[in-house]
Amino acid sequence: GQRRLTTSWGYNGGPFFTHDGSRIVWRRFDERGLIADIWTMKLDGTDQKQITTFGSMSWAPYEHPSGQYFIFASNKLGFENFELFITDAAGTKEPVRVTYSDLFDGLPVPSPDGTQLAWTSSRSGGGAGQLFLAQWNHQKALDAHRASSLPVRPSSMTMSRPALAKSRVPSALNAIAEMPSCRAFHAAVTV
Fold first, then answer.
1. Which residues are registered as beta bridge partners of 106?
2. What is the 3-state secondary structure (H, E, C) of 114-154?
3. pLDDT tens, position by position, 131-160
4. For residue 188, what are the contacts with CB-CB under 8 A and spacing of at least 6?
5. Do the beta carbons of residue 73 and residue 60 sit within 8 Å?
6. With the CA atoms of 101, 98, 50 and 38 taken in that order, what torsion angle do they form, in degrees rounded to the nearest 10?
7. Is 163 left (phi over 0), alpha (psi -120 to 50) or beta?
8. Residue 175 region, left (φ>0) first, then alpha (ψ -120 to 50), else beta?
9. Looking at the whole model, is its pTM more than 0.70?
10. Closest alpha carbon to 21 in 51, 61, 65, 60
11. Can you tell me the distance from the alpha carbon of 140 to that of 41, in angstroms, rounded to the nearest whole number?
């Protein structure tokens, strides 16, 4: 049989199971369809928890196999500029930016062992998305998230682009992902 799990106004979609299969992570749009946040729930639809309050379109959430954080895409920095971010699984801290590109970075999926990250990006030009693969450093991701030390707060919905860009967090992202032939991860990639 089938069972409806969500009943909120607005679009609910893009569901994935967490690493242990105990929860579902998905995106929930507001009633106007302009803002989407990341949510989790138990498999029976109970215990729905909002993970992000980013004030932008956040979607394509995927849990790292460690179960400690989600990797997702968001256009926090501009309507057409989707970047990858990580946030703790409980949603208690401000998300940390992972990619640095003026174009699209999205649809992230870690390998089953958590040592690689695949995602779609238009960073190579031509307008079409291409698949990219990088080595993922789980410990550096945890360190970067700890360094953010910013609790989630309502004002995060109005955080400006300069506030994100001047954060001390990007410098802590060195070597989260290592991809020899791609410059777009900026501080997160060893070139």
1. 120
2. CCEEEEEECCCCCCCCEEEEEEECHHHHHHHHHHHCCECCH
3. 999 999 999 999 988 887 666 544 333 333
4. 98, 99, 100, 170, 173, 174, 175, 176, 177
5. yes
6. 50
7. alpha
8. left
9. yes
10. 65
11. 28
Residue 136 CA to residue 127 CA, distance in Å, equals: 26
d(CA 144, CA 191): 19
Please check whether residue 28 is in contact with residue 39, taking contact to mean a CB–CB distance below 8 angstroms.
yes
Cα 106 to Cα 85: distance, rounded to the nearest angstrom:
9
Compute and round to an integer the Cα radius of gyration of the chain: 16
96 Rama sector, left if φ>0, alpha if ψ -120 to 50, beta otherwise: beta
The answer to whether 51 and 96 are in contact (CB under 8 A) is: no
Tokens of 160: 């400006």
| Alpha-carbon gap, residue 124 to 35, rounded angstroms | 27
Find out whether 134 and 116 touch, Cβ atoms under 8 Å: yes
Angle at 104 between CA 101 and CA 105, to 5 degrees: 75
Let me know if 185 is exposed, middle or buried by CB neighbors in 10 A (0-12, 13-18, 19+). Answer: buried
How long is the chain?
191
Mean pLDDT along residues 91-119: 93
10-65 pLDDT, tens digit per residue, is 899 999 999 999 999 999 999 999 999 999 999 999 999 999 998 999 999 999 99
Distance CA 173, CA 143 (A): 8
